[in-house]
Design goal:
Rossmann fold, 10 helices, 33% helix, 15 strands, alpha/beta
Length: 341
């Protein structure tokens, strides 16, 4: 039975507590938070869990095997290093850190002390996302041209990081997972209306190897909650909507027909229709699963068996490098910024 400490009992922390405190593979030994009100709520729901306001209480407990960190991004670096150097394995929420340098140091320390460092890129553990990866990897969509990703809602508005760090981190990790590649460069623009210097909406285009483009729209200033992803290939096209739990994936048998597309002149709507082919729409069966439970179980597997996390330090660093490039491009009025440059 692995003993877990959860640091941060705010928006996301309770979900981690619920998943790890199952008394089968793991149980939560400590919950740490600066808010006494949140700790009181934890004690009411889980009276057997110890609580405290200082992370060192959990880090110094020899019974604790691993730590799950769900605190603001700016605190990830300090807390993760302290946990690792206390001999604990660490699951830290996305993004790994607010700077590339800090993210790289976190990974280096994890390697040095021989402990697991895993990042909470929860969407790569989504069953529909994993099935979509199979379609892409097996080239059932053909050559991927581009991916369009929209992630918007009205709030919650952050004051520590911009909308890209908060929301686009999900999509960057997912695109890199699907394409099995790391970004090359970014062009981006954004707007700061609520808090000066913190972009509430971000529009970015990321260039991946093989001329694949990934276009992102991330905003917490939008009237409609949208989770819309489209993968366009030269043979088929795929849509992924994780809000639609019943039918999250659709495969469109649509493509531009290379032979009929080579008409000398398109002079009517009928002629234009000849240049594209529209086939069936397939709705694949996706196994029912809970992505966060899959993520937590994978973390436990890595701790128990020494497995390499699907979303470990290198993946977390790649996302932070891309987010950094987005911020640099926005600061430079949309000029292309190299990822890692």
């Amino acid at each position: 039975m692995l003993k877990i400490a959860v640091v941060g009992a705010g928006h996301w922390g309770p979900n981690l507590i619920g998943n790890f405190h199952d008394h089968t593979r793991s149980e939560v030994a400590w919950v740490i938070d600066r808010s006494e009100d949140r700790l009181a709520a934890v004690r009411t729901r889980f009276p057997d869990i110890q609580t405290g306001t200082e992370a060192r209480l959990a880090f110094e407990d020899p019974a604790v095997d691993a730590v799950a960190i769900a605190t603001p991004t700016a605190t990830h670096h300090e807390l993760t290093l302290a946990a690792l150097r206390s001999g604990k394995h660490v699951l830290v929420e996305k993004p790994l850190a607010e700077t590339v340098e800090k993210a790289e140091e976190m990974h280096a320390v994890a390697q040095e002390v021989g402990r697991i460092l895993m990042v909470g890129h929860v969407f790569v553990y989504n069953a529909a996302a994993q099935l979509a990866k199979q379609y892409i990897t097996n080239q059932e969509l053909g050559r991927v041209y581009y991916i369009s990703m929209v992630r918007t809602n009205l709030g919650p508005i952050r004051v520590d990081v911009n909308a890209a760090f908060d929301l686009a981190a999900h999509d960057i990790s997912l695109a890199s997972f699907w394409l099995d590649a790391t970004p090359i460069s970014v062009t981006a623009t954004g707007g700061s209306w609520i808090n000066r210097g913190i972009e509430d909406a971000v529009f970015a285009t990321i260039r991946y190897p093989n001329d694949v483009l990934v276009n992102l729209h991330a905003s917490w200033l939008n009237p409609i909650k949208t989770r819309d992803i489209r993968v366009v290939g030269d043979k088929r096209m795929l849509t992924f909507d994780d809000v639609n739990t019943g039918e999250p994936l659709r495969i469109y048998d649509k493509q531009v027909d290379e032979q009929t597309a080579q008409v000398p002149f398109v002079d009517s709507f009928a002629s234009f229709r000849m240049t594209v082919r529209e086939g069936d729409i397939v709705v694949p069966r996706v196994p029912m699963s809970q992505p966060l439970k899959q993520e937590c179980d994978h973390f436990l597997d890595c701790v128990e068996n020494g497995e390499t996390p699907m979303s470990g330090g290198p993946e977390g660093i790649s996302v932070v490098r891309t987010l950094d490039a987005i911020s640099r491009s926005m600061a430079d009025r949309g000029r292309e910024a190299l990822v890692g440059g």
